[in-house]
Amino acid sequence: MRAMVLAAGFGTRLRPLTLEIPKPVVPVLGQPLCGFAIDFLRLHGVTEFLMNLHHDPDAVRKRVDAWTNNRFPLEYAFEPDILGTGGGIRNAREFLRSGTFIAANSDVIVRFPLEQAIARHRETSALATLVLFPDPSRRYTPVRIREDGKILGFGAKAPRGATEGFFTGCHIVEPELLEEIPPIGFSCIVQNTYAPLIAAGAPIFAFMTSGSFLDFGAPTDYLSGVISLLAENKNVNRSYVGSEAMLAASAVVGPDAAVESGASVNDGALVRRAIVWPGANVPPYATVENGILTPKVFVPA
Fold first, then answer.
1. In b/e form, how buried is each residue of 29-59, taking b as 16+ CB within 10 angstroms?
2. What are the residue boundaries of the structural domains of the chain, listed by start?
3. Is this structure's pTM higher than 0.90?
């Protein structure tokens, strides 16, 4: 199976961090952020990937290629003008048209029973199946669905259904959908493709499930996401130090801290509830906490 990993945004909400490193490849415990989406899909049978790029594409390619190290096929599609979630997928139609494919976002870490979602997609003969999670805090746009899982609509004005959830950005798609996406320019896959198809009665289904969803949209999300991953690792100090980081013997890292390879933490320094980027330097006896330290700036989070 093939997958497209959407990575062509500007990362505006994550600024000023994305002025130094593009959002799809910000460091997360020793690997680029987009690597978590790719690893999850590979674990569930995806064998070939395409990433669309826009902002600083050479930097994204360099970091992703170093991480993949030719372990699996990965292609890139550069967008001189951003095409959106719909236009980007249509632009990759030659890569995607061979069969059922998956589209996923590069800037979230989501884990759920994907095999069950694929099985449900096939059982319903859906044109597309959107993976939804419950949203008790109502942070995201609601997706309302019928008892049989067919989507009724998006947003508060959609007809009320049996239940609702939020779209994780992961969808299982049949290649026939590619011809339903507006053929030219920017488009949103939800507003410009799924919404009209649903109104026309097309088989657009939801797979309501639960699992882990970490949004890396803003600096506070980035830090809290890394802390959540550290907690999963069951490290007593909930900390991570990259293999090529310089850590002085008297420095202290943790709890809830990550020091990436290429960073330096000097004598007597303390890093807690923080991320230290490659190339960043924590001076002797300094404290870095509640934010992200890069070679150029400290961003509170």
1. bbbbbbbbbbebbeebebeebbbbbbbbbee
2. 2-215, 219-300
3. yes
